[in-house]
Amino acid sequence: MLRGILTVGIWTMASRLLGFARDVLIADRLGTGLVADAFFVALKLPNLFRRLFGEGAFNAAFVPAFAGTLASFGREPARRLAGEVASVLAVWLAGITVLGIVFMPQLMVVLAPGFAALPAKLALTVTLTRIAFPYLMLMCLAALFGGMLNGLDRFAAAAGAPVLFNVFLIGALLVPPVAMLPTTGHLLAAGLVLSGFAQLGVLVLAVRLAGMAPPCGWPRLTPGVRTVLRRMGPGVIGAGVTQLNVAVDTVIASLLPAGTVSVLYYADRVDQLPLGVIGAAVGTAILPLLSRQVRAGDKGLAITTLNRGIEYALVLTLPAALALSVAGGPIMSVLFARGAFDALAAARSAEALAAYAVGLPAYVLAKVFAPGFFARGDTATPVKIGLVAVALNLVLNLVFMRPLGHIGPPLATSIAAAFNAAALAVLLYWRGYFRPDAALGGRLGRMVLAAGAMTLVLLVLDPVLFAIAGGRPLLRAAALVMLVGTGLVAYGAAGQALGAFDLLELGRTLLRRRFAAAKSRG
Question: N or C: which terminal CB in the chain sees fewer CB atoms within 10 Å?
């Protein structure tokens, strides 16, 4: 599990860093104006499906079925199952894509109702979303091939493919507009679709190299396909609660003053770094492992795996949440405050970031707890919890919208995420699937103390460094690097001294695994 977490985490970190470079360019070119709002809403709809399928419902249904078939019956039956699912999925996705493009104006009225009062803004959003919408089909198919690789414990290609998303969007930002693509928003939407073709191609190639290329055939609802589809249906809601909550945020933000959608986008992008690197990595690595343990009937080992997954998730999530809360101002300012993205926009994004960061540990824990249900073929329970969480988020958004403005949507999302994670944990415990062990209890308290020590260092160092840097961009960038680096050192030193983790043992474990892997290849 640790090897899988590190593989996914490293590739996700590379993708997120490229994503920051992309967002810095977008902020410079578009700021928080009409085209920016239109593009971010256009990106939201296909990206919502990508996250639901790539990181949620499809993996929740397909990976346990694929990994279980592979463990019980071998490679050929697992390969046939993947081919059967791919045939049905391709036909279904083609229909969804066509319907989405045709009825995009009606979808936009639901997704961004506040744009209806501005016909030009709504028309541009519809056009950009129509261009970008085929990305949905490409990435859902990519999720199948990525799920196969994860089930084979080959995490690198699936984790690395999203790097191409950022490469193509950065390329689109560097190309001048043309007659068919008259704005930067049009270029970005086209680059999005091209990145989908590239990512799907990489994953197809990786599956072929693994000797598991699924056979093509007419779509048939075989028993295996029915099982996957039956589990995937409720999993769309259960595994995608966080994404649905973010979609609710977009609806509410469209009703707030102009620029709010963009302000929340940039805050969410920074918050997504630890969420993606840690949450997606742990969730991706733990699901096939839990599925095999549950299929083997090893209840005790499955509980131990869940405990260690929680540890791995929180060891970096707790300090990240505190750091984003107290240092959001300099982070947003240094990363984005240039060109059309002014100091006021950076300050508002920093406030939204702090509200998102409050819920960061809950977001990540939900990604750890959900596989405890998915590995047992239960996608219905997370749905029930997810529906309540989405309803809670909507109610809180409406309550917070006027008094808190742009802070309301992220704060509502954080509270709903906390409810979601807590409810999942309680039900896992009640059913006997989860019991916190002594090691988790002891280390958790020490992690909190170490994160608190790091927070004190950041609070003292932040005003000093940026007072010295003044308004000089290079010095401010250097001050941010120093602030982040010092915080990491402080947390690492405090955690090692308090016994929250053992960095030396971690290093020895990774070296042993690297040596074992090299020996097996040799």
Answer: C
Cα angle 231, 272, 121; round to 5: 90
Which two three-digit tokens encode residue 116? 């209806």
Question: Could you read off the pLDDT of 280-300 as tens digits, one per residue?
Answer: 677 777 777 787 788 777 888
Q: Which residues pair with 341 in a beta bridge?
A: 338
Q: Cβ contacts of residue 286 below 8 Å, gap of 6+?
A: 1, 305, 306, 309, 368, 371
Out of 436, 464, 486, a domain closes at: 436
Q: Which two tokens stand for residue 53?
A: 């399928």
Shared domain check, 212 and 187: yes
pLDDT confidence of residue 430: 93
For residue 406, which amino acid is it? H
CA-derived radius of gyration, the chain:
22
CA distance linking residue 464 with residue 483, whole number of Å: 10
- Look at the chain and report how many structural domains it folds into: 2
One domain for residues 241 and 157: yes
What is the C-alpha to C-alpha distance for residues 83 and 85, in angstroms, rounded to an integer? 5
- Per-residue model confidence as pLDDT tens digits over 357-379: 888 999 889 888 988 888 887 87
Spatial distance between the Cα atoms of 23 and 266, rounded to a whole number of angstroms: 8
Distance CA 473, CA 488 (A): 23
User: Based on the domain organization, do 352 and 476 belong to the same domain?
Assistant: no
Same domain, 411 and 461: no
SS3 readout for 470-486: CCCHHHHHHHHHHHHHH
Q: Is residue 521 very low, low, confident or very high in pLDDT (cuts 50, 70, 90)?
A: very low
Place of tokens 């984005």: 336
d(CA 404, CA 258): 15
| 367 & 480 share domain | no
Report residue 341: phi and psi, to 5°.
-95, 100
What token pair was written down for 180? Answer: 């068919």
Q: What angle do CA 303, 309, 311 make, to 5 degrees?
A: 110
Pair (292, 202) in one structural domain: yes
- Write out the two tokens for 144: 């199948």
* CA nearest to 368, candidates 275, 267, 234, 249: 275
Please give the Cα distance from 386 to 381 (Å, whole number).
Answer: 8
447 and 407 in one domain?
no
Are both 354 and 339 inside the same structural domain? yes
Identify the domain containing residue 504 by its residue range: 442-522
C-alpha–C-alpha distance, residues 78 and 85, integer Å? 11
Q: Among 406, 436, 466, where does a domain finish?
A: 436
The Cα–Cα gap between 487 and 493 comes to 10
Q: Kindly compute the dihedral angle of the four CA atoms of residues 313, 319, 320, 323, in this order, to the nearest 10 degrees.
A: 170
